[in-house]
Design brief:
The chain is α/β, with parallel strands linked by helices and 244 residues long. It is 34% helix and 19% strand. The chain is built from 9 helices and 10 strands. An 8-stranded mixed sheet has the order 2-1-3-4-8-7-10-9, sandwiched between helices. A two-stranded antiparallel ribbon has the order 5-6. Bound molecules: thiamine diphosphate (TPP) and iron/sulfur cluster (SF4).
Length: 244
Amino acid sequence: MFKDLIKLDRLPTSWCPGCGLGQIMIQLAMVMDGLGLNHTNSTVISGVGCTGRLAGYMNVDGIYTLHGRTLPVAEAVKLVSPDLKVIVVSGDGDLASIGGNHLLHAARRNPDLTVLCNNNNVYGLTGGQAGPTTPRNTKTVSTPAGATYDPVNLQNLMKAGARYFYAKTTVYHQLHLRNCIKEAIAWPGFAFVDITCHCIENNGRRLGFNSAYEMLQHFRRTYKRAPDGAETLGPDEIGIVRQG
Ligand SMILES: Cc1ncc(C[n+]2csc(CCOP(=O)(O)OP(=O)(O)O)c2C)c(N)n1
Ligand code: SF4
């Protein structure tokens, strides 16, 4: 049962009601259960942030490491325990801002890691400051007049090398999300899943959404599946691009 992979005695989580992180955790647990992954053969590693708490709710050994340092820690675990399935779950700020240097070089080294990026467009835990994926002109707590820079293009970053796996999905598209996680775990190299997720409390309300449900409906309306065989995903497309 996928529920065996979640520490039910720790529920309810510390996440805000309606936060998309619970959906990511449940989909991850379902995929792991289907693949026979458990505490004997897998580990979940996370950094600081709301997303960072996810590893602590999973019923496998994990590491709650320093902000931005998930990837070197995960690479080290994989190096000493090559038979372990190593799964990183981290925020966009953790992975692409303070951990951006590690992201660049981990992708280049192509270790066999699965990375789930909770991409909520802000630093959630610290109150909703602009982060590396905040779209230009977005009002955040640190950019009240709108973010002045273009966001990091995670897809381009991941595709900089000869070998890559980049999936883009959202928490609204549950089956697609599950499939992306499954394919990423099966990929024999560095697999990055960019999950558009809603932070209703520290981003959504400021943008004018009244509820998590409204944000999910926004994802439903905005994101479309990329055509089969697409080599690049458009800004509002979900899908997988890979090169082995
Ligand atoms: C070295 C260090 N710098 C800054 C912080 C403060 N801090 C904690 S969480 C966080 C940002 C979290 O944003 P993200 O990684 O996107 O995760 P989210 O909370 O949105 O899930 C920051 C800046 C810290 N804990 N450690
Ligand atoms: S602050 Fe945002 S990301 Fe953090 S738990 Fe609340 S809704 Fe989720």
